[in-house]
Amino acid sequence: MKRTLELANPDAIYLAGRWTSPTGSGRLSVIDPATEQEVASVGSASAQDVAQAVASAKDSFDSRIWQDTPVPERARKLRVIANELRARHEQLAAALTLEMGSPWSVSFNSTAGPPRVFDWYADLLEADVTVEKRERANGEAWTTLDPVGVVAAIVPWNAPLNLSVLKLAPALAAGCSVVLKPAPSTPLDAHLLAECVDAAGLPEGVVSILPGGNEAGEALITDPRVDKVTFTGSTATGCRIAHACADRIARVALELGGKSAAILLDDMSIEETVERLVPSATMQAGQACSALTRVLVHRSRHDALVEALAARMRAIRLGDPFDPETQMGPLAIERQRDRVEEYIAIGRREGARVVTGGGRPAHLDRGFYVEPTLFDHVDNSMRIAREEIFGPVVCVIPYDNEEQAVAIANDSEYGLYASVFTHDDDAVWRLARKLRSGNVARNAVLVDRTLPYGGYKQSGLGREGGLEGLRSFQEQKVVYLS
Ligand code: NAD
Protein backbone atom coordinates (compact mmCIF):
# COMPACT_ATOMS: atom_id res chain seq x y z
CA MET A 1 0.00 0.00 0.00
CA LYS A 2 1.40 3.38 -1.05
CA ARG A 3 1.93 6.23 1.42
CA THR A 4 0.31 8.71 -0.95
CA LEU A 5 -3.18 9.69 -1.90
CA GLU A 6 -4.46 11.40 -5.02
CA LEU A 7 -7.24 13.89 -4.37
CA ALA A 8 -9.22 15.26 -7.31
CA ASN A 9 -9.55 18.75 -5.80
CA PRO A 10 -6.93 19.29 -3.07
CA ASP A 11 -7.04 23.08 -3.27
CA ALA A 12 -10.82 23.38 -3.20
CA ILE A 13 -13.59 22.98 -0.64
CA TYR A 14 -16.98 21.41 -1.41
CA LEU A 15 -19.27 24.39 -0.92
CA ALA A 16 -23.01 24.16 -1.65
CA GLY A 17 -22.50 21.26 -4.05
CA ARG A 18 -19.57 22.71 -6.02
CA TRP A 19 -15.79 22.48 -5.73
CA THR A 20 -14.83 26.08 -4.93
CA SER A 21 -11.64 27.95 -4.00
CA PRO A 22 -11.71 28.92 -0.32
CA THR A 23 -11.84 32.68 0.32
CA GLY A 24 -8.99 32.81 2.83
CA SER A 25 -5.35 31.98 2.20
CA GLY A 26 -5.24 29.35 4.97
CA ARG A 27 -4.20 25.78 4.24
CA LEU A 28 -4.51 22.60 6.25
CA SER A 29 -1.28 20.68 6.53
CA VAL A 30 -1.81 16.95 6.90
CA ILE A 31 0.95 15.30 8.93
CA ASP A 32 1.48 11.54 8.73
CA PRO A 33 1.73 10.73 12.45
CA ALA A 34 3.98 7.74 11.77
CA THR A 35 6.66 9.76 9.93
CA GLU A 36 5.95 13.30 11.18
CA GLN A 37 6.15 14.38 7.53
CA GLU A 38 3.60 16.50 5.68
CA VAL A 39 1.74 14.26 3.23
CA ALA A 40 -0.74 16.76 1.88
CA SER A 41 -1.78 20.36 2.07
CA VAL A 42 -5.41 21.16 1.31
CA GLY A 43 -7.66 24.22 1.21
CA SER A 44 -9.14 25.36 4.52
CA ALA A 45 -12.62 26.83 4.91
CA SER A 46 -12.82 30.31 6.42
CA ALA A 47 -15.65 31.83 8.47
CA GLN A 48 -16.74 33.57 5.27
CA ASP A 49 -16.98 30.24 3.43
CA VAL A 50 -19.04 28.85 6.31
CA ALA A 51 -21.46 31.80 6.10
CA GLN A 52 -21.86 31.24 2.38
CA ALA A 53 -22.48 27.52 2.84
CA VAL A 54 -25.10 28.18 5.53
CA ALA A 55 -26.84 30.78 3.33
CA SER A 56 -26.99 28.28 0.51
CA ALA A 57 -28.17 25.50 2.84
CA LYS A 58 -30.97 27.74 4.07
CA ASP A 59 -32.00 28.70 0.53
CA SER A 60 -32.11 25.05 -0.49
CA PHE A 61 -34.06 24.11 2.62
CA ASP A 62 -36.58 26.94 2.24
CA SER A 63 -37.10 26.04 -1.41
CA ARG A 64 -38.11 22.52 -0.23
CA ILE A 65 -36.25 21.12 -3.23
CA TRP A 66 -34.72 18.20 -1.31
CA GLN A 67 -37.48 17.38 1.16
CA ASP A 68 -40.09 17.40 -1.65
CA THR A 69 -38.01 15.12 -3.86
CA PRO A 70 -40.00 11.86 -3.98
CA VAL A 71 -38.83 9.32 -1.41
CA PRO A 72 -37.67 6.68 -3.94
CA GLU A 73 -35.48 9.28 -5.65
CA ARG A 74 -34.01 10.51 -2.35
CA ALA A 75 -33.32 6.92 -1.34
CA ARG A 76 -31.70 6.27 -4.72
CA LYS A 77 -29.31 9.17 -4.23
CA LEU A 78 -28.32 7.88 -0.79
CA ARG A 79 -27.55 4.52 -2.41
CA VAL A 80 -25.44 6.25 -5.06
CA ILE A 81 -23.34 7.74 -2.25
CA ALA A 82 -23.06 4.26 -0.70
CA ASN A 83 -21.81 2.79 -3.97
CA GLU A 84 -19.33 5.61 -4.51
CA LEU A 85 -17.96 4.99 -1.01
CA ARG A 86 -17.65 1.29 -1.83
CA ALA A 87 -15.78 2.10 -5.02
CA ARG A 88 -13.27 4.15 -2.97
CA HIS A 89 -12.85 1.60 -0.18
CA GLU A 90 -9.06 1.33 -0.48
CA GLN A 91 -8.54 5.05 -1.02
CA LEU A 92 -10.62 5.87 2.05
CA ALA A 93 -8.71 3.35 4.16
CA ALA A 94 -5.42 4.84 2.93
CA ALA A 95 -6.67 8.33 3.80
CA LEU A 96 -7.45 7.27 7.38
CA THR A 97 -4.12 5.52 7.85
CA LEU A 98 -2.24 8.50 6.43
CA GLU A 99 -4.01 11.23 8.35
CA MET A 100 -4.56 9.52 11.71
CA GLY A 101 -2.17 6.57 11.79
CA SER A 102 -4.69 3.82 12.37
CA PRO A 103 -3.33 0.38 11.36
CA TRP A 104 -4.20 -0.56 7.80
CA SER A 105 -6.42 -3.49 8.80
CA VAL A 106 -8.39 -1.25 11.17
CA SER A 107 -8.81 1.45 8.53
CA PHE A 108 -9.82 -1.13 5.93
CA ASN A 109 -12.40 -2.80 8.17
CA SER A 110 -13.85 0.46 9.48
CA THR A 111 -14.24 1.82 5.94
CA ALA A 112 -16.65 -0.98 5.10
CA GLY A 113 -19.19 0.57 7.50
CA PRO A 114 -20.07 3.95 5.92
CA PRO A 115 -21.68 2.59 2.70
CA ARG A 116 -23.80 0.27 4.83
CA VAL A 117 -25.00 3.26 6.86
CA PHE A 118 -26.14 5.10 3.71
CA ASP A 119 -27.90 1.97 2.43
CA TRP A 120 -29.53 1.37 5.80
CA TYR A 121 -30.95 4.90 5.96
CA ALA A 122 -32.12 4.63 2.32
CA ASP A 123 -34.07 1.48 3.28
CA LEU A 124 -35.42 3.14 6.42
CA LEU A 125 -36.48 6.22 4.46
CA GLU A 126 -38.54 4.02 2.15
CA ALA A 127 -40.09 2.02 4.99
CA ASP A 128 -40.67 4.83 7.47
CA VAL A 129 -44.14 6.05 8.41
CA THR A 130 -44.04 9.81 8.92
CA VAL A 131 -47.78 10.60 8.98
CA GLU A 132 -50.03 8.96 11.55
CA LYS A 133 -53.70 9.42 12.42
CA ARG A 134 -54.43 9.95 16.11
CA GLU A 135 -57.87 9.55 17.69
CA ARG A 136 -59.24 12.39 19.76
CA ALA A 137 -62.59 13.03 21.43
CA ASN A 138 -63.76 15.82 19.12
CA GLY A 139 -62.49 15.15 15.66
CA GLU A 140 -59.38 14.04 13.96
CA ALA A 141 -55.67 14.77 14.33
CA TRP A 142 -52.55 13.69 12.52
CA THR A 143 -48.92 13.68 13.55
CA THR A 144 -46.27 14.32 10.94
CA LEU A 145 -42.48 14.41 10.92
CA ASP A 146 -40.73 17.33 9.23
CA PRO A 147 -36.98 17.73 8.63
CA VAL A 148 -35.42 19.83 11.37
CA GLY A 149 -33.89 22.31 8.89
CA VAL A 150 -30.31 23.44 8.33
CA VAL A 151 -27.91 21.10 10.13
CA ALA A 152 -24.35 21.91 11.22
CA ALA A 153 -22.37 18.69 11.70
CA ILE A 154 -18.97 18.88 13.42
CA VAL A 155 -16.67 15.88 13.83
CA PRO A 156 -13.30 15.16 15.48
CA TRP A 157 -10.19 13.46 14.09
CA ASN A 158 -10.34 10.06 15.76
CA ALA A 159 -12.88 8.27 13.54
CA PRO A 160 -13.66 11.02 11.06
CA LEU A 161 -15.32 9.13 8.22
CA ASN A 162 -17.62 6.97 10.32
CA LEU A 163 -18.68 9.88 12.49
CA SER A 164 -19.35 12.14 9.48
CA VAL A 165 -21.49 9.51 7.80
CA LEU A 166 -23.44 8.81 10.95
CA LYS A 167 -24.63 12.42 10.84
CA LEU A 168 -24.83 13.01 7.09
CA ALA A 169 -26.84 9.93 6.09
CA PRO A 170 -29.78 10.32 8.53
CA ALA A 171 -29.86 14.12 8.11
CA LEU A 172 -30.17 13.70 4.33
CA ALA A 173 -32.73 10.92 4.77
CA ALA A 174 -34.78 13.31 6.91
CA GLY A 175 -34.69 15.97 4.15
CA CYS A 176 -32.30 18.41 5.85
CA SER A 177 -29.55 20.54 4.31
CA VAL A 178 -26.16 19.89 5.90
CA VAL A 179 -22.93 21.81 6.42
CA LEU A 180 -20.30 19.32 7.64
CA LYS A 181 -17.07 20.54 9.25
CA PRO A 182 -14.37 17.88 9.66
CA ALA A 183 -11.42 18.43 12.01
CA PRO A 184 -8.42 20.33 10.59
CA SER A 185 -5.98 17.41 10.96
CA THR A 186 -8.12 14.88 9.04
CA PRO A 187 -9.43 16.48 5.83
CA LEU A 188 -8.41 13.67 3.44
CA ASP A 189 -11.31 11.28 4.04
CA ALA A 190 -13.63 14.31 3.95
CA HIS A 191 -12.43 15.19 0.45
CA LEU A 192 -13.17 11.66 -0.73
CA LEU A 193 -16.58 11.73 0.97
CA ALA A 194 -17.34 15.00 -0.86
CA GLU A 195 -16.44 13.31 -4.17
CA CYS A 196 -18.98 10.59 -3.35
CA VAL A 197 -21.69 13.11 -2.45
CA ASP A 198 -20.93 15.06 -5.61
CA ALA A 199 -21.51 11.96 -7.74
CA ALA A 200 -25.06 11.69 -6.36
CA GLY A 201 -26.00 15.09 -7.83
CA LEU A 202 -27.92 16.51 -4.87
CA PRO A 203 -29.59 19.89 -5.39
CA GLU A 204 -27.40 22.98 -4.94
CA GLY A 205 -26.86 23.96 -1.32
CA VAL A 206 -27.99 20.68 0.25
CA VAL A 207 -24.48 19.53 1.23
CA SER A 208 -21.29 21.45 1.99
CA ILE A 209 -18.19 19.71 3.36
CA LEU A 210 -15.78 22.26 4.76
CA PRO A 211 -12.60 21.07 6.48
CA GLY A 212 -11.39 23.91 8.66
CA GLY A 213 -10.20 25.05 12.05
CA ASN A 214 -12.04 25.84 15.24
CA GLU A 215 -12.87 29.38 13.99
CA ALA A 216 -14.83 27.84 11.10
CA GLY A 217 -16.62 25.64 13.65
CA GLU A 218 -17.41 28.63 15.85
CA ALA A 219 -18.82 30.53 12.84
CA LEU A 220 -21.03 27.55 12.07
CA ILE A 221 -22.50 26.96 15.53
CA THR A 222 -23.26 30.64 16.13
CA ASP A 223 -24.95 31.23 12.77
CA PRO A 224 -28.63 31.95 13.54
CA ARG A 225 -29.69 30.22 10.31
CA VAL A 226 -28.52 26.85 11.67
CA ASP A 227 -31.47 24.96 13.18
CA LYS A 228 -29.54 22.04 14.63
CA VAL A 229 -25.96 21.34 15.62
CA THR A 230 -24.84 17.73 15.82
CA PHE A 231 -21.39 17.43 17.35
CA THR A 232 -18.89 14.71 18.22
CA GLY A 233 -15.78 15.67 20.12
CA SER A 234 -14.53 16.70 23.52
CA THR A 235 -16.81 17.52 26.42
CA ALA A 236 -15.25 21.01 26.68
CA THR A 237 -16.19 21.89 23.10
CA GLY A 238 -19.58 20.21 23.53
CA CYS A 239 -20.23 22.46 26.50
CA ARG A 240 -19.35 25.57 24.43
CA ILE A 241 -21.68 24.37 21.64
CA ALA A 242 -24.54 23.71 24.05
CA HIS A 243 -24.20 27.28 25.35
CA ALA A 244 -24.19 28.74 21.82
CA CYS A 245 -27.27 26.70 20.88
CA ALA A 246 -29.09 27.64 24.10
CA ASP A 247 -28.91 31.32 23.11
CA ARG A 248 -31.32 30.67 20.25
CA ILE A 249 -32.89 27.36 21.40
CA ALA A 250 -31.27 25.61 18.45
CA ARG A 251 -31.52 21.83 18.61
CA VAL A 252 -28.31 20.17 19.70
CA ALA A 253 -26.97 16.62 19.84
CA LEU A 254 -23.66 15.88 21.56
CA GLU A 255 -21.49 12.76 21.42
CA LEU A 256 -18.68 13.44 23.88
CA GLY A 257 -16.03 11.70 25.89
CA GLY A 258 -15.93 8.59 28.02
CA LYS A 259 -14.10 6.81 30.83
CA SER A 260 -15.69 3.45 30.39
CA ALA A 261 -15.45 0.59 32.86
CA ALA A 262 -14.83 -3.10 32.24
CA ILE A 263 -16.16 -5.12 35.18
CA LEU A 264 -14.58 -8.55 35.46
CA LEU A 265 -16.79 -11.06 37.28
CA ASP A 266 -15.35 -14.12 38.99
CA ASP A 267 -16.72 -16.76 36.59
CA MET A 268 -14.52 -15.51 33.75
CA SER A 269 -10.93 -16.72 33.55
CA ILE A 270 -8.11 -14.18 33.58
CA GLU A 271 -6.76 -15.58 30.28
CA GLU A 272 -10.04 -15.20 28.41
CA THR A 273 -10.66 -11.77 29.89
CA VAL A 274 -7.29 -10.46 28.81
CA GLU A 275 -7.66 -11.75 25.23
CA ARG A 276 -11.02 -10.00 24.89
CA LEU A 277 -10.31 -6.93 26.97
CA VAL A 278 -7.01 -5.65 25.58
CA PRO A 279 -8.32 -4.92 22.06
CA SER A 280 -11.33 -3.07 23.58
CA ALA A 281 -9.10 -1.04 25.89
CA THR A 282 -6.40 -0.09 23.37
CA MET A 283 -8.32 0.15 20.08
CA GLN A 284 -7.25 3.05 17.88
CA ALA A 285 -4.30 3.51 20.30
CA GLY A 286 -6.89 4.34 22.94
CA GLN A 287 -8.28 7.23 20.88
CA ALA A 288 -11.81 5.85 21.01
CA CYS A 289 -14.54 7.37 23.14
CA SER A 290 -15.83 3.92 24.11
CA ALA A 291 -12.42 2.41 25.03
CA LEU A 292 -12.58 0.37 28.25
CA THR A 293 -9.91 2.26 30.17
CA ARG A 294 -10.97 1.47 33.76
CA VAL A 295 -10.70 -2.23 34.55
CA LEU A 296 -12.48 -3.31 37.75
CA VAL A 297 -11.52 -6.68 39.24
CA HIS A 298 -12.18 -8.47 42.53
CA ARG A 299 -9.36 -7.74 44.95
CA SER A 300 -8.52 -11.47 45.22
CA ARG A 301 -7.68 -11.63 41.49
CA HIS A 302 -6.16 -8.15 41.12
CA ASP A 303 -2.51 -9.15 41.00
CA ALA A 304 -3.07 -12.06 38.63
CA LEU A 305 -5.01 -9.84 36.25
CA VAL A 306 -2.39 -7.08 36.34
CA GLU A 307 0.35 -9.57 35.51
CA ALA A 308 -1.58 -11.09 32.59
CA LEU A 309 -2.71 -7.71 31.25
CA ALA A 310 0.83 -6.36 31.35
CA ALA A 311 2.17 -9.38 29.44
CA ARG A 312 -0.55 -9.06 26.80
CA MET A 313 -0.04 -5.29 26.42
CA ARG A 314 3.74 -5.73 26.10
CA ALA A 315 3.09 -8.13 23.21
CA ILE A 316 1.14 -5.55 21.14
CA ARG A 317 3.11 -4.91 17.94
CA LEU A 318 3.69 -1.16 17.55
CA GLY A 319 4.92 0.10 14.24
CA ASP A 320 4.27 1.49 10.81
CA PRO A 321 0.47 1.51 10.39
CA PHE A 322 0.86 0.54 6.71
CA ASP A 323 2.64 -2.69 7.76
CA PRO A 324 -0.02 -5.45 7.87
CA GLU A 325 1.68 -6.94 10.98
CA THR A 326 1.20 -3.74 12.99
CA GLN A 327 -1.41 -3.89 15.74
CA MET A 328 -1.06 -0.36 17.10
CA GLY A 329 0.01 2.78 15.30
CA PRO A 330 1.01 6.20 16.58
CA LEU A 331 -1.31 8.71 18.18
CA ALA A 332 -3.03 10.80 15.53
CA ILE A 333 -1.55 14.19 16.35
CA GLU A 334 1.46 15.50 18.22
CA ARG A 335 -0.57 17.45 20.78
CA GLN A 336 -2.44 14.23 21.61
CA ARG A 337 0.85 12.48 22.38
CA ASP A 338 1.83 15.44 24.59
CA ARG A 339 -1.49 15.11 26.40
CA VAL A 340 -1.10 11.37 26.96
CA GLU A 341 2.46 11.78 28.25
CA GLU A 342 1.26 14.51 30.60
CA TYR A 343 -1.39 12.14 32.00
CA ILE A 344 1.18 9.38 32.50
CA ALA A 345 3.26 11.87 34.52
CA ILE A 346 0.14 12.88 36.49
CA GLY A 347 -0.59 9.23 37.28
CA ARG A 348 2.94 8.73 38.61
CA ARG A 349 2.67 11.88 40.74
CA GLU A 350 -0.67 10.72 42.10
CA GLY A 351 0.98 7.54 43.40
CA ALA A 352 -0.20 5.04 40.80
CA ARG A 353 2.36 2.52 39.54
CA VAL A 354 3.32 2.04 35.89
CA VAL A 355 3.32 -1.75 35.44
CA THR A 356 4.26 -1.66 31.78
CA GLY A 357 4.82 1.07 29.19
CA GLY A 358 4.89 4.67 30.30
CA GLY A 359 7.18 5.99 27.57
CA ARG A 360 7.93 6.06 23.87
CA PRO A 361 8.88 2.76 22.18
CA ALA A 362 12.66 2.49 21.92
CA HIS A 363 12.63 0.83 18.49
CA LEU A 364 10.78 3.71 16.76
CA ASP A 365 12.78 6.90 16.33
CA ARG A 366 10.00 8.99 14.79
CA GLY A 367 6.23 9.19 14.87
CA PHE A 368 3.86 10.12 17.69
CA TYR A 369 4.05 6.73 19.42
CA VAL A 370 3.33 5.96 23.07
CA GLU A 371 3.75 2.49 24.57
CA PRO A 372 0.63 0.69 25.77
CA THR A 373 0.66 1.68 29.43
CA LEU A 374 -0.85 -0.11 32.40
CA PHE A 375 -1.34 1.50 35.82
CA ASP A 376 -2.16 -0.30 39.07
CA HIS A 377 -2.34 1.08 42.62
CA VAL A 378 -5.10 3.25 41.19
CA ASP A 379 -7.84 4.82 43.24
CA ASN A 380 -10.98 5.94 41.40
CA SER A 381 -10.54 9.46 42.77
CA MET A 382 -7.26 9.95 40.85
CA ARG A 383 -7.27 12.12 37.74
CA ILE A 384 -6.04 9.23 35.59
CA ALA A 385 -9.19 7.31 36.62
CA ARG A 386 -11.59 10.22 36.17
CA GLU A 387 -10.43 12.19 33.12
CA GLU A 388 -10.46 11.03 29.54
CA ILE A 389 -6.84 10.46 28.48
CA PHE A 390 -7.62 9.35 24.91
CA GLY A 391 -4.50 7.22 24.56
CA PRO A 392 -3.36 3.62 25.23
CA VAL A 393 -3.49 3.99 29.01
CA VAL A 394 -5.40 1.51 31.18
CA CYS A 395 -6.07 1.67 34.94
CA VAL A 396 -6.83 -1.40 37.08
CA ILE A 397 -8.95 -0.78 40.18
CA PRO A 398 -9.86 -3.47 42.76
CA TYR A 399 -13.37 -4.00 44.21
CA ASP A 400 -14.58 -6.08 47.15
CA ASN A 401 -18.08 -7.01 45.99
CA GLU A 402 -20.37 -6.59 42.99
CA GLU A 403 -22.24 -3.66 44.52
CA GLN A 404 -18.99 -1.79 44.97
CA ALA A 405 -17.94 -2.58 41.40
CA VAL A 406 -21.12 -0.95 40.09
CA ALA A 407 -20.62 2.03 42.40
CA ILE A 408 -17.06 2.56 41.11
CA ALA A 409 -18.18 2.19 37.48
CA ASN A 410 -20.91 4.79 38.08
CA ASP A 411 -18.64 7.13 40.03
CA SER A 412 -17.68 9.08 36.91
CA GLU A 413 -18.65 12.31 35.17
CA TYR A 414 -19.00 10.18 32.04
CA GLY A 415 -21.48 7.45 31.14
CA LEU A 416 -20.84 6.24 27.61
CA TYR A 417 -20.02 2.53 27.83
CA ALA A 418 -19.64 -0.32 30.27
CA SER A 419 -18.75 -3.93 29.63
CA VAL A 420 -19.31 -6.89 31.94
CA PHE A 421 -16.84 -9.76 31.55
CA THR A 422 -18.74 -12.93 32.35
CA HIS A 423 -20.45 -15.92 30.72
CA ASP A 424 -23.61 -15.31 32.74
CA ASP A 425 -26.33 -13.38 30.85
CA ASP A 426 -28.34 -12.93 34.05
CA ALA A 427 -25.37 -11.18 35.61
CA VAL A 428 -25.09 -8.87 32.60
CA TRP A 429 -28.76 -7.93 33.00
CA ARG A 430 -28.40 -7.52 36.76
CA LEU A 431 -25.54 -5.06 36.32
CA ALA A 432 -26.86 -3.39 33.15
CA ARG A 433 -29.97 -2.22 35.03
CA LYS A 434 -27.78 -0.42 37.56
CA LEU A 435 -25.03 0.93 35.29
CA ARG A 436 -25.46 4.61 34.36
CA SER A 437 -24.19 4.37 30.79
CA GLY A 438 -25.74 4.51 27.34
CA ASN A 439 -24.33 1.14 26.28
CA VAL A 440 -23.62 -2.09 28.15
CA ALA A 441 -22.03 -5.08 26.42
CA ARG A 442 -20.85 -8.51 27.45
CA ASN A 443 -17.11 -9.16 27.07
CA ALA A 444 -16.51 -6.46 24.43
CA VAL A 445 -17.23 -3.06 23.00
CA LEU A 446 -19.88 -3.47 20.34
CA VAL A 447 -21.26 -0.60 18.28
CA ASP A 448 -24.00 -1.34 15.75
CA ARG A 449 -24.92 1.73 13.73
CA THR A 450 -28.49 0.47 13.26
CA LEU A 451 -28.99 0.88 17.03
CA PRO A 452 -29.03 4.12 19.03
CA TYR A 453 -25.63 5.16 20.40
CA GLY A 454 -24.90 7.85 22.96
CA GLY A 455 -24.03 8.61 26.53
CA TYR A 456 -25.42 9.44 29.95
CA LYS A 457 -24.13 12.40 31.97
CA GLN A 458 -21.23 14.34 30.41
CA SER A 459 -20.82 11.76 27.65
CA GLY A 460 -23.46 13.53 25.67
CA LEU A 461 -26.99 14.45 24.80
CA GLY A 462 -29.25 12.56 22.41
CA ARG A 463 -28.62 9.43 20.37
CA GLU A 464 -27.11 8.74 16.94
CA GLY A 465 -27.67 5.76 14.70
CA GLY A 466 -30.74 3.61 14.16
CA LEU A 467 -34.27 4.97 13.94
CA GLU A 468 -33.46 7.34 16.82
CA GLY A 469 -30.70 8.86 14.67
CA LEU A 470 -33.23 9.68 11.96
CA ARG A 471 -35.76 11.06 14.46
CA SER A 472 -33.10 13.39 15.85
CA PHE A 473 -33.18 15.23 12.50
CA GLN A 474 -36.98 15.53 12.51
CA GLU A 475 -39.50 17.81 14.22
CA GLN A 476 -42.92 16.49 15.16
CA LYS A 477 -45.99 18.43 14.06
CA VAL A 478 -49.66 17.87 14.93
CA VAL A 479 -52.35 18.75 12.40
CA TYR A 480 -55.88 19.10 13.85
CA LEU A 481 -58.87 18.59 11.60
CA SER A 482 -61.96 19.76 13.43
P1 NAD B 1 -12.49 18.85 19.95
O1 NAD B 1 -13.71 19.02 20.73
O2 NAD B 1 -11.34 19.74 20.24
O3 NAD B 1 -12.76 19.04 18.38
C1 NAD B 1 -13.79 18.36 17.71
C2 NAD B 1 -14.27 19.20 16.55
O4 NAD B 1 -14.84 20.41 17.05
C3 NAD B 1 -13.18 19.64 15.57
O5 NAD B 1 -13.72 19.58 14.26
C4 NAD B 1 -12.90 21.07 15.97
O6 NAD B 1 -12.40 21.87 14.92
C5 NAD B 1 -14.29 21.53 16.37
N1 NAD B 1 -14.31 22.67 17.29
C6 NAD B 1 -13.42 23.00 18.25
N2 NAD B 1 -13.82 24.13 18.89
C7 NAD B 1 -14.99 24.51 18.34
C8 NAD B 1 -15.92 25.56 18.59
N3 NAD B 1 -15.70 26.49 19.52
N4 NAD B 1 -17.03 25.62 17.84
C9 NAD B 1 -17.28 24.68 16.90
N5 NAD B 1 -16.45 23.68 16.61
C10 NAD B 1 -15.32 23.58 17.32
O7 NAD B 1 -12.14 17.32 20.12
P2 NAD B 1 -10.94 16.54 19.50
O8 NAD B 1 -9.74 16.72 20.35
O9 NAD B 1 -10.84 16.92 18.08
O10 NAD B 1 -11.52 15.01 19.61
C11 NAD B 1 -11.32 14.16 20.71
C12 NAD B 1 -12.54 14.11 21.60
O11 NAD B 1 -13.69 13.63 20.92
C13 NAD B 1 -12.38 13.15 22.76
O12 NAD B 1 -12.76 13.77 23.96
C14 NAD B 1 -13.34 11.99 22.44
O13 NAD B 1 -13.82 11.27 23.51
C15 NAD B 1 -14.41 12.68 21.73
N6 NAD B 1 -15.17 11.73 20.89
C16 NAD B 1 -16.41 11.31 21.28
C17 NAD B 1 -17.12 10.38 20.52
C18 NAD B 1 -18.48 9.91 20.91
O14 NAD B 1 -19.18 9.36 20.08
N7 NAD B 1 -18.93 10.08 22.14
C19 NAD B 1 -16.56 9.91 19.35
C20 NAD B 1 -15.30 10.35 18.98
C21 NAD B 1 -14.62 11.28 19.75
Describe the structure.
This protein has 16 helices and 22 strands. It is an alpha/beta fold and 482 residues long. The protein has two domains: 267 residues, Aldehyde Dehydrogenase, Chain A, domain 1; 189 residues, Aldehyde Dehydrogenase, Chain A, domain 2 (3-Layer(aba) Sandwich), CATH 3.40.309.10. The strands form six sheets. Strands 14-15-16-13-12-18-19 form a seven-stranded mixed beta sheet, with helices on both faces. Strands 9-8-7-10-11-21 form a six-stranded mixed beta sheet, sandwiched between helices. Strands 5-6-22 form a three-stranded antiparallel beta sheet, with no helix packed on it. Helix 13 links the parallel strand 15 and strand 16. It starts with 12 loop residues before the first strand and ends with a strand. Bound molecules: nicotinamide-adenine-dinucleotide. The site of nicotinamide-adenine-dinucleotide has 30 residues, from helix 8 and helix 9.
List keywords for this structure.
alpha/beta, Aldehyde Dehydrogenase, Chain A, domain 1, Aldehyde Dehydrogenase, Chain A, domain 2, 2 domains, seven-stranded mixed β-sheet, six-stranded mixed β-sheet, 22% strand, globular
Topology:
Layout: E1 13-15, E2 18-20, E3 27-32, E4 37-43, H1 47-63, H2 71-87, H3 89-100, H4 104-110, H5 113-127, E5 131-136, E6 139-147, E7 150-154, H6 160-174, E8 177-181, H7 188-200, E9 207-209, H8 214-221, E10 228-232, H9 235-246, E11 251-255, E12 260-264, H10 270-282, E13 292-298, H11 302-314, H12 334-350, E14 353-356, E15 373-376, H13 383-386, E16 393-399, H14 402-410, E17 414-415, E18 417-421, H15 425-432, E19 439-442, E20 456-457, E21 460-461, H16 466-471, E22 474-481
Parallel strand pairs: 7-8, 7-10, 8-9, 10-11, 12-13, 12-18, 13-16, 15-16, 18-19
Antiparallel strand pairs: 1-2, 3-4, 5-6, 6-22, 11-21, 14-15, 17-20
Bound molecules: nicotinamide-adenine-dinucleotide.
Nicotinamide-adenine-dinucleotide binds next to helix 8 and helix 9.
